[in-house]
Amino acid sequence: MDFKKNPGTQFKDIDDLDQGEAAEEAAALREGISYHDHLYYVKDSPKISDAQYDRLLKRLEELEDAYPKLKTDDSPTQRVGAEPVSKLEKVEHRAPLLSLQATLENEDVKHFLDRVRDKADSRSVQLMLEPKFDGLSVEVIYHDGKFEQGSTRGNGRVGEDISHNLKTIRTLPLSLKESDHLPGSLAVRGEIYMPLDGFTELNKKRVERGQEPFANPRNAAAGLMRQYESRNVAGKPLAIFFYEILSADGDIPDSHRRVLEQLRDWGLRTAPLNETATNLEDIGKYHAKLAERRDSLDYEIDGIVIKVDDYQLRDSLGARDRNPRWALAWKFEPREETTLVEDIVVQVGRTGILTPVALLQPVDVGGVTVSRATLHNESEARRKDIRIGDRVKVIRAGDVIPEIAERIKRPGKKRGDRFQMPGKCPVCGAGVTREGAYHICSAGLSCPAQLRGRIQHYASREAMDIDHLGEDAADQLVQRGLVENLADLYQLKESDLESLEGYAEKSAAKLHEAIQGASRVRLDRFLYALGIARVGRRVARQLAEAFGSLKALMNADREQLEDISGIGAEIAGAAADFLADPGNRRILQRLRRAGLQIEDMPAHRKQPLKGKTFVFSGALDGFTRDEARERVEALGGSATSSISGETDYLVVGDNPGSKRDDAEEQGVECIDEEEFRKLLGA
Ligand code: IVH
User: Fold this and answer.
1) How far does the centroid of ligand 1 lie from the alpha carbon of residue 181, in Å?
2) What is the pLDDT of residues 292-320, one digit of tens each?
3) Which pTM was predicted?
4) Fewest CB within 10 angstroms: 96, 420, 448, 537, which?
5) Are residues 345 and 309 in the same domain?
């Protein structure tokens, strides 16, 4: 057994080991782990992934649990975290940053509660329940209310100074709010995390620039926090929640509930979903509730933390092995699974981009069956080196599309061929051109896959909003040669539609009516509906507002397009190419001849909401989210999905989520639907 060379060695079932074999394996694991520690922390050039490292450490823990005699004081399992790297300054924490005992089992929660109750004698036990954030734990020190220093957890006793990076995080106050109880010196503990939408956006940019994407939001936050240059961190989507006071020279409240209130009074952001509890049933409900809400949150949580509220009781419970006995993490079922890559296919999207997709043996990842995962593009597929027949680890973050995190190395196992992008479009056989990281089918709309995607996009709600024209109908229309370009849609007769599989007289009539009904459209929607590469809704609106009419836009040259503020040269180029293409111009003409009326933009539109940023939470009566966003944008404002320092208004509808608490904490104005309507001038 050599875990230096073969970290992926398969483990035997622990029950099948005798004590001697277990001792031998534990020794080999310790040697392997300290070797990989050295590569990571001292040499700064790890040979194995964090996941593989965790697997070794976990196996060692399991062996030591099964055979407690194997536990030694110098075992890597006895460390609280990782040893800090040498390059950033080391900082000794004011108080140790302990870790949490964690479990997946209901039974352990019961034991935890029994023990706490035992210690409490006859006093009734108050508990606080909190989300367990999957981020990066930090200590932040304030001196006389001013930010002084912040550090990573490191090994729990000594961490790394990351003050320069922490200072760039907008939700971390640089000075605390005045208060009677402000200690001269205050050390607090919190969690740095990356909101999910920011994570998706950041990774997209990284891939486009040819950089490696981050494996998950936690890695992204941790990677950024350990940068030496804060300019690499400033402006990145990072935020913090605070959850404990580590030390204070002065009185602090004697219960956790009041400590959290105190933190908020000082201006330190706490988790919006905290609740109190007194019994197992409350805890179970909270666990189930958060597990359900997990996918709709804007940040990753991987369980709940159960904490004793009373600080005196906490003191008497004490700690064991670096874990306090007054807290327990009850984790959710992991959203990480391994499965087999059965095939890798290449899909062609509406803009002609070829995307490799791994077809997986279906596997349940935290409650969702996953059977495919995108490999994004050739360089991504090659970087991860995924091949048919590989075993891979699949992860799912929030409601983000499942990703293959990595392949599981199986030394000695013969593998399939390296993935290669086809030289020809797999759908139409046309040549493939390259643009940056992307491979693109050169056939344009004569490629059925592009055409089908284009039709679907044209009909989508934010575009022409044609009901009943979904993937299946679009596919059949293309397959049967009934539609060769968007203008053909308007020539379809009811009898043509009746010939589609699954369409009877009635449904064909409905579809026909829906298509014919989509005969008036405002210019910005129409431009978006055309599905021009890089022209999303925002750009379509900017183009439309700048030129007012399709005619003016078609007469504009590339330079004029580039002059519109906020539109880069590449986007202007893509739009100009599309509009100059004789084939496209013919289709536009045919669309108009078929009776499509493209409305000019209202001239000199007023922009009373210019510079204002809105966030929505909960359901509104009179608008869908998209409609509300459009209205705001039409008046010059913008809408984002999460509260930040830039937010001006939170519009609160029915059943608002946690954003409301966020807004209140950050002093963002909350308005209801009626006030929102007033702002719209409606
Ligand atoms: S309290 C030991 N509260 O979970 C008690 N930790 O080891 C002090 N974590 O590294 C920690 N959410 O980063 C606490 N609501 C929460 C937390 C939390 C996440 C992290 C923390 C720690 C890890 C477990």
Assistant:
1) 25
2) 898 888 899 999 999 999 999 999 999 98
3) 0.56
4) 420
5) no
